[in-house]
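User: Please predict the structure of the protein below. I'd like the answer in C-alpha cell form so I can feed it into my own downstream comparison script.

Assistant: Understood. Taking the following sequence of 155 residues as input:
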Amino acid sequence: MRLRTLLRSRLVMVTMVTVVTMAAMVTACNSEDSPVAPSSTANVPFQIIDLTVGTGPAAANGDRLTVSYTGWLFDANGVDNKGQVFDSASALAPFPFVLGTGQVIAGWDQGLVGMPVGGVRRLIIPPELAYGEAGRGPIPPNATLIFEIGLIAVS
C-alpha cells in the first residue's frame, strides 16, 4: 500500500513538473523577446556582386550559357545572408540554358548579362524577379534568393 501511494505521489509530481515546464515554454515562445525564425522574405533590392571577374567572352542575350551554381534562401541572420540551400548544380553536372529567353528566372536573365566566362557572380534576387507570390518547391512564397553562379561556357 505504501509503495502504491509513493508511486502515485511521484506520478503526480512528474505530471506537475511537465505541465509547469510546458507552460513556461509556451510563455517564452509568445514573448516579444523570443528569437524569430530565419525569414526568406526581405525587402532587399536586386544586387549583382562579382566575386571573381572572368577573363573569357561575356554573356549576352541569346547566348547558350553553361553554369554551376548554388541557391540559398535569404536569411538576414546568416553569414552573407545565406540561409538554407535549396538547389545547386556543380561543374561536373552543370546547368545549360539560353540567356534572355525566359528559361530561367528574371533575376538570372538580368543578372548574368555581361558576365565573362570564368567569373563567379552573386545575385541577390527579390521575389518579383524570382518566384513571387507562388513560390516553387522548397522556395516559399515571396522569398528573396541568393545565388552564386560560375560561368563555365558561352556559345
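That's the full C-alpha cell string. The two ends are 87 Å apart (CA to CA).
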